[in-house]
Write a structure and sequence with these properties.
This protein is mostly helical. It has 2 domains: 155 residues, no CATH class; 137 residues, Four Helix Bundle (Hemerythrin (Met), subunit A) (Up-down Bundle). Helices cover 78% and strands 0% of the residues. α6 packs antiparallel against α7 and α7 crosses α8. The longest helix has 34 residues.
Length: 339
């Protein structure tokens, strides 16, 4: 089914807005602004957050801590119902969950902008669903868009849990996982509505298995990277210097670094084969994005974790994962055409 150029471009706008959410979330994480708004969906009880401490009541920390405690109790009750009693117990007994930060206007507005990005992406998805329902009504596209709408709602709700639990590390990882699933579904939708035929899609076994392997390693690398980052945060709180990080980080860091080299070797081989035989543009894009990601990774390891580089590292990794997904979608679509 042919769609209007306007609708197709709008789907790319939706994708860009989702990437903006990832970028904003990473910036929030890097700047330590995750608790800039102690409540959700409002920020300090307001749709437009305060800019001065004088705009808040004297007991605001105690009041918002009490609200968060109630939300933590509800979340722990939910975890117990689905059989995660030990996890619920750990959250309840973790004293760091119940620390209420002092008001900081910069952090508050950083977190608020992150929420605005999520609001824009969610509403763009809703408009996309209404557009499909009104003009196209193709079942597969409607299901994909509806699924993404539901997942975006869950992502927003889970964002409130991340705030309520004061950034418990594993909740941040799940938050990232949901964002990647949403991106993957939006990419699949874009691929389905595009009438453009990709040229030079390799159909040999080497491309098939290596592209799958690189995709799976990259996906795993993103979560391993979040664990390394969380471990570094913990080391910083414990007073370890940067020189001591690598020794303390242990196996996850070495696996993360080793897998980066493995992805580089495999993708370099595909890049060489592509220049020689295939001429498939997505492989070139993936290679250059990987180069940028590895450059930021080296900067993180040897330049004292500069803030914006952390955000760039995650964004490049997300773009690389997206390109790899599109490669697999192209290969699958081309295979169907052949048969």
């Amino acid at each position: 089914m042919q769609v209007s150029r306007r609708f197709y471009i709008f789907q790319w706008v939706v994708l860009i807005l989702i990437f903006l959410v990832v970028f904003a979330g990473s910036f929030v994480r890097m700047s330590g602004s995750g608790m800039g708004c102690p409540d959700w969906p409002k920020c300090f009880g307001q749709w437009v957050p305060p800019t001065e401490l004088t705009e808040l009541p004297a007991n605001y920390r105690e009041a918002y801590l009490l609200k968060r405690q109630k939300k933590v109790e509800k979340f722990c009750a939910f975890l117990q119902k689905i059989g995660l009693e030990n996890t619920a117990k750990k959250i309840k007994n973790d004293p760091s969950v119940y620390i209420e930060e002092a008001f900081n206007a910069r952090k508050t507005w950083t977190e608020y902008i992150n929420r605005l990005a999520g609001f824009l992406a969610g509403n763009a998805m809703l408009l996309s669903f209404v557009w499909l329902l009104r003009y196209y009504r193709k079942r597969k596209w409607l299901i994909l868009t509806a699924l993404n709408l539901v997942l975006m709602g869950i992502e927003a709700w889970f964002g409130s849990i991340v705030v309520a639990t004061n950034l418990v590390p594993w909740t941040i990882t799940i938050h990232l996982f949901l964002a990647l699933v949403i991106i993957g579904i939006q990419l699949y939708l874009l691929h389905n509505i595009s009438a453009k035929e990709r040229q030079g899609v390799p159909q040999n076994a080497a491309f098939k298995w290596l592209s799958w392997l690189i995709l799976l390693i990259t996906f795993y690398q993103m979560f391993l990277g979040t664990q390394v980052r969380e471990a570094i945060d913990a080391l910083v709180k414990q007073g370890f210097s940067r020189a001591e990080w690598i020794e303390q980080l242990g196996m996850p860091f070495f696996i993360h670094r080793s897998f980066s080299w493995l992805v580089l070797i495999l993708l370099t081989y595909l890049f060489w084969k592509n220049r020689k035989d295939w001429h498939y543009s997505r492989i070139n894009v993936a290679f250059y994005v990987l180069a940028a990601e590895l450059f930021t990774g080296v900067a993180l390891a040897y330049a004292d974790m500069p803030g914006l580089v952390q955000t760039a590292h995650l964004v490049f990794a997300t773009i690389l994962l997206s390109v790899l997904l599109l490669m697999r979608f192209d290969a699958q679509a081309h295979k169907k055409e052949l048969f």
